[in-house]
Amino acid sequence: MMRLPCSIPVDRDGVDALAVTINGDIMTRGRANLLLLAAGAIWGLGFVAQSSAMRGVEAFMFIGLRFLLAALTVTPLAFREARLATGKLEPKDYLGFIFIGTLLFTGAALQQVGLETTSVTNSGFLTGLYVVMVPFLAVVLFWQWPHPIVWPCALTALAGIYLLSGGNVEGLSVGDWLTIACAAFWALQIIFINRLAVKSGRPIMLSLVQFLVCAALGLIISSGIERSNVSDILSVAPLIIFAGIFSSGIAFTLQAVGQRFTTSAQAAIMLSSEALFAALFGAMLLGETISFRGAIGCALIFTAMIAVELIPALRNRSSMDRASVSP
User: What are the EamA domain coordinates in residue numbering (predicted)?
Assistant: First the structure.
C-alpha cells in the first residue's frame, strides 16, 4: 500500500497528464485509470452474486451485511493510512465522508430494491446511465466542464452498454425507474469523491466511513421492515462474502484511490467497464455467449475508455512540443 500525501493538485479539465511522486513511486493518471478498470472488473464479476443473493436474503439485510464485511476488510488499511499520514483529518472531512456514504447507500438501496421488479439486463444498462450523468451533473452543480472528448466518449460508452445488454430494453417498470434514480445517486457519489477525497488525501478512511454508514443504515432499516433469518442468510453466505470483501471492500476502495488522480467524468467512463467485464466473465465462467451486437457494444466501451485516456494525453504532448520549439 502506497503512502498518500494529504494534498495533491489535480487537473480538473483532464487535459494535462497527472504524475505525482508517492514514496519514490509515480502515480500517473494512467495508473489511476487502471485502478478504476480493476474496480469495474470486480463489479462485473460480482453483479451475478448481487442479484443471486436476493433469493435468500432481503435487500436491506444484504446491503447491511455486505458493507459491514467491506468495513472490516479495509479497517486495517485505514489505520495504517492514518499512521503514515502527515496531517490529521478535520471534522468537516468526516462529514464529507458521511455524506458520500449516504449517497452510496441510497444508490445501492435503489438498485437492490429495483432488482426485485426489473431484469438483470435492464438493471445493468440503466445503472450505466451514470456515465452520462456524471459530466452533466458536474456542469449543473459546479460549472465544471470536462475535456471536450468526454462527451462523445460518454455517449459511446452508453451506446456500448445498451448493445451489450441486448439492445432491447423493455417498457420501464417501477424497478427500472428505481435503477435510473440509483444511477443518479452513484453519479453524485463519483463527483463528490473526486472533490472531497482529493482535499483530504485519505481515500482508505473515506472508504471505511462510507462503508460503516451503509452498513449501519442497511441493518437499521432491515431490523424495522424485514424479517430475515439466520438459515436464509447462511444459504447465500458465499455470495454475501464475495460482495462484501471484493465487490465492496476492494472495488470501492480502488475507486476512491484512483479518483484522486483523474477527473470524475473520465472515472465514470473507466468504471463503465463493469458491463464489459460482466459479459466477458459470463462467457468465460458460465459458458454464456456474446452476440454480434454485444461484441459491438464491447468494442464501443473499449474504444471510449482508450479515447478518453489517450486523446487528452496526445493533445497535451503536442502542446508541450509546440511550446518547446517556440522562441
Answer: 32-165, 175-307
